[in-house]
Amino acid sequence: MANESFDEFILFISEQEAKFVQDRITGVERHFAELCTIFAAFTRKAARLRDKGDELAKVIQTYADSEVINRSLSTGLTNFSATLSVIGDYRDAQVQRLDAKVIAPLSQYAMICKHARDDVKNTFAARDRELTRRRHLDKVRERNPRNRQMISQAESELTKASIEVSRVVKGLEEQIDSFERRKLHDLKSILLDFITIELSFHTKSLELLTKAYQDVAAIDEIKDIEDFQSARGEMNGEFRETMRVPDSVARLDTVGRTSFRQAYSLTNLASRFASSPVALQKLAKGGTESADSARTGFSNSSESVQVEEYPDDSTEETESESIQEKPVRTRQKSM
């Protein structure tokens, strides 16, 4: 009975130890897996941010290349794009370091925990074999107390099982202690590496962003406005020059209008003199000189388009000719 109680106590202790060790291993496995998952997601976000930063730098550089008027703005955008590209390089290094120093060590703990769990199982399997050998020896002693051969054989098997248990238990204790020490050291190192990586990246980013701030602040708005107004003035001048009528065409138009008016006034004068009886009498008495002087006086007048009124005793032929000349005066005025 005493032996059975001792065996039950040993079995209870073994089960408690097994549960304790298994819980520790399971907890480490679960938490490290969660840490690995969240750090991997963090790294993927950093990689996407790196890619978006490269796209941003490319768009800004394209704008800078297309800006030909605001030279100060173009220079500022070019410098800003270059700074963003350098920040992207540091962010790429950040991603690579996170993957190598944080995610990779955390992902290894799935296999480490599996090996630790297997060691625990082997240890307690050896302890179970020892308990089995002990119970077998007790049964042999009870059933065959005088059979020294069977008792000796059972005792020999129990001794081997005990030695194996002692060896396995000692190894398991060392492995569990090593597992705990490694877990603590690795987690501490991983977190310190993460902090160092982030500090390094943000320190460099702070320096570069300070430079970027200075480059953008150096954009000379007043100078760029002056350049824009100058370019706009040149464009307006070219437009006015294109739309300007050549002087030769204008002079030709003026000469044409003057010649037409002079010709019209002389023709009108000749027709009036030809149709009026008074004018015919004057031409008969005064001769050619008075008619020439009249033509000269009317041709020198710039307002010769106006026609004087004639008495009511004019003939029907004169009125008809007068009516026919009105459209000609109208066209002359429209010019």
UniProtKB/TrEMBL annotation:
GO terms for cellular component: ciliary basal body; ciliary transition zone. Residues 309-322 have a biased composition (Acidic residues). It is found in: Cell projection, Cilium; Cytoplasm, Cytoskeleton. Pfam families: FAM92. Residues 286-335 are annotated as: Disordered. Residues 290-305 have a biased composition (Polar residues). Coiled coil: none annotated. The keyword Cell membrane does not apply. One of its GO terms (biological process) is cilium assembly. Its main location: other. It comes from the Eukaryota. The keyword Cytoplasm applies. Belongs to the CIBAR family. This is Protein FAM92A isoform X1. It comes from Pogonomyrmex barbatus (red harvester ant).
